Amino acid sequence: MDYSVCLLLLLSTVSSVSTGQFPTAQMVKEWVDQMQNDLIALTDTASGLQDLIKIYKTHKAHFSVETNNARNLVATAAGNIEKLLVKRSQALKRLATEAEKFQMEHEWRADSEFDKIVYYNAKDDLNQTEKKNRYVPDDFDVDPDFKRLVSYNTTAVHIPTDIYEGSTIILNELNWTEALEDVFRKNKEEDPSLLWQVFGSATGLARYYPASPWIDLSNSANKIDLYDVRRRPWYIQGAASPKDMLILVDASGSVSGLTLKLIRTSVSKMLETLSDDDYVNVVSFNEKASHAACFENLVQANVRNKRILKDAVQNIVAKGITNYKGGFELAFEQLAQMNVSRANCNKIIMLFTDGGEERAEEIFEKYNPKQAVRIFTFSVGQHNYDKGPIQWMACANKGYYYEIPSIGAIRINTQEYLDVLGRPMVRADKRAKQVQWTNVYLDALELGLVITGTLPVFNKTKTGSKKSQNHLILGVMAIDVSLDDIKRLTPRFTFGPNGYYFAIDPNGYVLLHPNLQPLTAKFHEPVTLDFLDAEIENEIKVEMRKKMIDGQTGNYTIFSLVKSQDERYIDQGHRMYSFAPVKGTDYSLALVLPEYSMHYIRATIGDTITQAKFSESLLADKFDEYGYTFIAPRVYCKDLKPPDKNKNNTEFLMEFNNYIDTKTPNNPMCNVELVNRLLLDAGITSDLIKLWKQTELQLGVLARFVATDGGITRVYPKSAGLYWKEEAETYESSFYKRSLDNDLYIFTPTPYLKKENTSDDSILVSRAVNLNVDGITLKPAVAGVKLDISAWMARFINTTQRMNCNDEICGCQRNDVYVDCVILDDGGFIVMSNRDEYIDQIGSFFGVIDPALMRSLNDSLFTYKQTYDYQSLCDPKRDSKAAAGLRSVYVVSYISQTLTRTHTQPTTHTHLVIHTCTLTHACSHILISRHTLALHQHKDRCKCTCSHFDLQLLPHTFSNGHTHTRTCTNTSRGSPGNHKSVCGADEKRSRGDGESVRVGVEVTVTGLGGLACSANTPSDVEKGHCLSSLIKRTTCGETMQIVRQTLVRRRRICLKIFKRIALPVALGRADTRGRDSCSCCRR
Hints:
Elements: E1 5-11, H1 25-47, H2 49-58, E2 63-67, H3 70-105, E3 141-143, E4 148-150, E5 156-158, H4 168-177, H5 180-190, E6 197-201, E7 206-209, H6 233-239, E8 243-250, H7 258-271, E9 279-285, E10 289-291, E11 299-300, H8 303-314, H9 324-336, E12 346-353, H10 361-367, E13 374-380, H11 388-395, E14 400-404, H12 410-413, H13 417-428, E15 436-437, E16 441-442, E17 449-459, E18 462-463, E19 468-469, E20 472-482, H14 483-488, E21 500-504, E22 510-512, H15 531-534, H16 539-549, E23 554-563, E24 570-581, E25 588-594, E26 599-603, H17 608-615, H18 623-626, E27 628-631, H19 649-663, H20 672-692, E28 701-708, E29 712-716, H21 718-721, H22 734-741, E30 746-749, E31 762-768, E32 771-773, E33 776-778, E34 781-788, H23 789-800, E35 819-825, E36 830-833, H24 836-839, H25 846-849, H26 851-858, H27 897-901, E37 911-918, E38 921-929, E39 932-936, E40 948-953, E41 970-971, E42 980-981, E43 989-990, E44 996-997, E45 1004-1005, E46 1012-1013, H28 1018-1022, E47 1065-1066, E48 1069-1070
Helix pairs in contact: 2-20, 3-5, 7-8, 17-20
Main location: membrane
GO molecular function: metal ion binding; voltage-gated calcium channel activity
Domain VWFA: 244-421
């Protein structure tokens, strides 16, 4: 088949119609073949695909075909990244060495006069400062690299809010760190591309260069600066060695109340001091010890696992008596396990308790005779218990004892253990002085996604009579590298839109990948997207990931599933993966190329005459002649800044034209290959437009378009370009990338949720150009047409019309009473329909329109592949303030095709309308019409829990052969004892809690649309007597059940809303695969 579409005929059966009149399979095939032939003939002619191939060949003198050697390319790029990071490492080592020297030379003063130490506090208002010892630089200017105000003549200081800046320790830190300013400045002079240089002190002070005002917190949630450099991912990684940590929580009855709250908060803050190189678990104990979460072993301390442990700690309940022996026994056993992944460096037990009389000496003698496991103890809360035993536990096991009497002591005392763990590093000195590179995180000063090189700074001051080193860490030195800097070393514009570089760290997390787009990144958490989550996983990728982590070099050619740019489709394609380590780091780099990107076009139009000729068609006043033209927003020249996404592309096009007109494309500031490729494509596509102008647009065609790898997109006529909504950057365009991966025409309806108005009933039909040059196949462009859906559906209706037909079913007539004709694309999105109610939903997923039928199609025609977006965050759950009442409703939709296949006597359709409302705002509207389930969210989107619902049922007739019992239809308003029966007989009784009870009603799940109805006779149902007791008050998260047995009180039913996934319900069971939400107010 040449088209990625499928035709589905859905029969709404009626008792007076024989299934023999339903169109046969052969008849449907004839309709499909006719429409396919019509579309092929139209699009081949209108798009000019074959003409475009000829035009490329006539321009063969203006380009050459080059080879992408994947192994050489990845080795070169890895080498360039290595050079960048080595250069940054040298600057880092210079800073750490000088810092240790300055601190040794500094004379500690306990009487430092506050007024004499002058510095710039980054949190001071730029317009004024009231304190004499502070100043605000007067040379702030917006820097293009930092995109914010900076001053290169000084440094800035940040001191955490909960630390007194006038303390003796802070004053001495301010004094000696001031000398770092000259080193910062020298590094910048030697390497102008350097970004932030930071020293984070163990005292909490941070000094950074260049100076810049702190982030504006006026629009933040709490408007309080909670930044502490010691909590940053890079500081945590640089300040200590990897560790295996077991957090032991006292859950006995004595810690109830405020103490338990302090313990919960303390454990959460402790977890924040761990990095991805660490492993952790939480155990709670009273008489018995148990795991707080579902983890039975130590797990990697990544963002996801720490969040699970934090949630588990909040659920710990205080009861029973304290048994330290049982708790420590399980803790030591966890740390002793050798068959699981772990850090294999420091081993730590963190005990949080209110105190006790037991020392548990025999446990330590048995499990820790050589003190291989350090034990830190925390006395939490204000109490009169003896602290001696837990102090002894820490001191006897190379640990430390801390007190947390109130919430203000938590942040400080849960991070001071790092000083203790840093002592072995100080003793190791040069062996521990290795630059470490972090995984990706969001810079606190709005630089975007960065990686950071870190190096610990040791206190080498000699103390005591023997002048021995004090073995303390002064802090961590850090230098940032923006991901944009790394991307510039991995150019992609010769690979085509579906070729790309990616890089991973030792944990398998990507630091470079086109799917790394954390829209909800938080600056205090690292961005942890595993390579296997960034792509659709398979066994070969698992093996490849392991080899990359091990620092190996290799190549794989695999058949892989690929998600589209807009994440609406999954395609198949061959990909070559080549990877190599980035020497001097723990990173590994890979290059991915599709088969058609093994070669690329290189423009050879170096003469200015040809360049000027091709560029003429890019002029804005030529749009009438050459169609509306867009150019990809790329960095063509260093001094020609590409526009933001929100900026008008035509303005950028005009700026580009002016630039090359005055400075010529061969300007040394320009990427000549990139500019020439753009101009070449401009010339080639302008020739195509000239051919288009020779023929009129055919009926049903709204526009013609062509897009190229070089970054040109033309839409003809100009008027159609005014409403063009596709990406100007072809490398980011979903229809463009999908067309390259499929050797057939691709249909792209406008996503239903992104339509600006429902009158946009058009669809893009596109196909890639297969250009053969000297036996090499290239795909340098995509061409297609924009179709008018209404016109083409009318044409299809005429195709299906049966001449001289006297039957009820004579084809796919518009708004036919008996037949629904729906055309879906290869992703299950509606392309065309004969029903007006579906026309308004062109581009919506059919699984939302008819989830049960989509489920059936997943078992036959479509392939179901479940994926998750690990970079998004779910909306936080809101506590309900509504009275007892309905929160959500689950309405069953049964597969209507079964009625046709089994030749069941048809029935008239049911029309059921359920409104779930919150006070005065309607939060959702669920409509069941025939076999169809549709969910229409209101524009104003309610924000609270629904408190009542209305149930209205129109006449329904069941198929023959079913027996039913009688029941009532009720209207619930959510208030106790206010259930009103509308049918008098067999009424329900109300309970004081507002819940109705029914016993002994037989439920038959049947009927078109899967509505569960019951009545003594079909005539009763015609009068409107249909079961409403199946729809009960519910709370979210409770299990949905569909039964053929006696109804019992407190039945729980919940509406599952799936994103792009069919609502999979079949008779007698509910399939809850996929992400779901029970909230009717879900956005």
